[in-house]
Amino acid sequence: EVQLQASGGGLVQPGGSVKLSCVASGFTFARYDLSWFRQGPGKGPEWVSGINGGGSRTWYADSVKDRFTISRDNAKNTVYLEMNSLKPDDTAEYSCTLGLQFWGQGTLVTVSS
Hints:
seven-stranded mixed beta sheet
């Protein structure tokens, strides 16, 4: 059974930083690309970032490019999302996904003063 569990969210001031983690199980982790999505209040899901299985290639939405960094540790079956220069518009529940079929339980990031 594929399981994905995100953590690390919380209340952050504008301009602040936070690093999210997502621990995965139930599949051969290093073989698969993974993504982060987010869903803000009253909004639909938005793709944020992706990373290939080996961690050598990354992709970002324009809205987060140069502020967010995705990475992974295949020895720990964990993917990360480091978020810097946060804005109120970044407020959302963040989830890691295996394709579009498997979504993990998300973690809420609230950017507010």
